[in-house]
Design brief:
Helix content: 25-40%
Protein name: PEP-utilizing enzyme
CATH architecture of the largest domain: 3-Layer(bba) Sandwich
Pfam families: PEP-utilizers
Radius of gyration: 19 Å
Structural class: alpha/beta
Largest sheet: 9 strands, mixed
Strand content: 15-25%
CATH class of the largest domain: Alpha Beta
Number of helices: 9
Shape: elongated
InterPro entries: PEP-util_enz_mobile_dom, PEP_Utilizing_Enz, Phosphohistidine_dom_sf
């Protein structure tokens, strides 16, 4: 059942959920403005109050979306920053943003504009085994880096580290390009790559603009991508959650 159908079928539940959700986001704002122990405690209580209804809806969502809701069961283990990120991602996946219009909260304000910590990715069990329907091979994925999604989408393929024009000859069609930051010269190879990852930059940097122009999934601001990822690695880029994982078959 897609969430539009859930919204229709369980409209009364969503109406009950609205003030609880608003209170949770208000508590997050208060904590961000003044990070006292008391405000953190109130924020945790407010987020915890959303869990009952969130877990109700988790039963109607695919695991890839529901896992953020399910992770909130372990909120006591999360640092405040990770808790905010996980909660915000859970709400983002539910597409209930019209309930927050009066708070002027942007979609995924925290989850989409900040890097995910390794601790939070570990908590969400990003390292997992997935069995492909058309294959008997097991695929293992392990978190590598995270950053800011700059052009939405996903890609899987061979990583190619190219720091400048002198490295362009290494790029093969379908590669995921990993670099510190792009320059206008990188337009020459944009048609070859299936994804783009950079160490630096934000959503209006050159790499982000280039990726959107060529409709290439892109994550920027990963900080250590060019040192963590190795040439030839098989990787998966998720430019929705902003993460990069290794893929081992």
């Amino acid at each position: 059942m897609i969430f539009n159908k859930i919204r229709i079928a369980y409209g009364e539940v969503l109406e009950r959920f609205k003030p609880i959700l608003r209170n949770a986001y208000q508590s997050i704002y208060h904590y961000q403005l003044d990070r006292t122990t008391e405000n953190e405690s109130q924020m945790r209580e407010a987020i915890n109050a959303t869990r009952e209804i969130l877990e109700f809806f988790a039963n109607h969502l695919p695991y890839s979306k529901a896992k953020y809701i399910l992770a909130l069961k372990r909120s006591d283990e999360m640092a405040p920053f990770d808790l905010i990120m996980c909660f915000d991602q859970a709400i983002f996946e539910m597409h209930v943003w019209e309930t927050l219009s009066e708070l002027r909260i942007k979609q995924g304000q925290w989850a989409k504009n900040n890097t995910w910590s390794k601790e939070l990715r570990d908590l969400l069990n990003e390292r997992q085994v997935v069995r492909h329907d058309d294959s008997n091979l097991n695929v293992e994925e392990e978190f590598l880096v995270s950053g800011t999604p700059a052009s939405r989408g996903s890609a899987q393929g061979r990583a190619c580290i190219a720091l400048d024009k002198e490295d362009f000859h290494q790029i093969q069609r379908g590669d995921i390009l990993v670099t510190t930051m792009t320059t206008p010269e990188f337009i020459e190879v944009a048609h070859l790559i299936s994804g783009l990852i950079t160490d630096r930059g934000g959503i209006v940097c050159h790499a982000a603009i280039l990726a959107r122009e060529f409709n290439i999934p892109c994550i920027v601001g990963c900080q250590t991508a060019t040192t963590t990822i190795k040439n030839g690695d098989q990787i998966r880029l998720d430019a929705i959650s902003g993460i990069v994982v290794s893929v081992i078959q």
